[in-house]
Amino acid sequence: MNVIEIKNLTKTYGKARGITDISFHVEEGEIFGFIGPNGAGKSTTIRTLLSLIYPTSGSAAIFGKDCIQFAPEIKREIGYLPSEVFYYDNMKVKDLLKYSASFYKKDCSKRIKELAEIMDLDLTKKIDDLSLGNKKKVGIVQGLLHEPKLIILDEPTSGLDPLMQQKFFELLEAENKKGATILFSSHILSEVQRLCNRVAIIKEGKIVTVEKISTLQENNYKKFKIETKSPLDPNHFNLSGVNNLAVSNNVTSFIFKGNINEVMKRIAEIEIANLWIEEPDLEEIFMHYYEKED
């Protein structure tokens, strides 16, 4: 079953760019990545999905129910962490979380304590006195305290130090094992690479591709680095599927997508001192997608 189903979703803001014809689905139990640079339309898509803003056209459904028609019902089963968190400054953390929990008609006090412990969050402090990172932790606990079936995260790690990011990822993996579906939006590719099964890449309000992370990394792309005795003519690797070609002194590097035998034939024609063939990381593949589309 698809927990999220987005079909031809469009949101226009006059002349400013919103999102155009966005379509993808997130399967039950999946950790799905939604990546693109800042301003690509990730937050607009998420806010439309949560019916915080309404689409110009197209539709979105969560748990098989229309996002606008069944918004209050759906929201009880969703944990949402916005990219920026704002709170009533005068409240204490525990009071704010207690207030949040009151919307879900179940006792969340034990879970709040557990989460605060994992995230190293002091419940007795006033929101006002918290650093940006600690405010983010409050948002994380607030999003997870009712053990939602769907967790939607918009740039969730900004403000968290590396140790806390690590704890947060472990927490998400544990929630996922318990059955939660996760939509993880980020411009930091290593995060998505680490956590997600599939990914949608968004550029300038449009989906460029939806792929399995494993497909992006393994099946299609290889990263070549070739060391030669003397500098190589870049045109030697003038093949379709060669991208990001760079020659620096005696080292030629590029990313290749396609039939690897074609490249090997070209390599066989030159005298090489050394050769490296690796899986490119998502960052490099991602840049390739962006360049290819321009």
TrEMBL record:
Pfam families, per the entry: ABC_tran
GO molecular function: ATP binding; ATP hydrolysis activity
Domain annotation ABC transporter: ranges: 4-229
Domain of life: Bacteria
Gene3D superfamilies assigned to the protein according to its UniProt record, in alphabetical order: P-loop containing nucleotide triphosphate hydrolases (3.40.50.300)
InterPro entries, A to Z: AAA+_ATPase, ABC_transporter-like_ATP-bd, ABC_transporter-like_CS, ABC_transporter_ATP-binding, P-loop_NTPase
Sorted UniProt keywords: ATP-binding, Nucleotide-binding, Transport
Family affiliation: Belongs to the ABC transporter superfamily.
The protein, known as: Sulfate ABC transporter ATPase
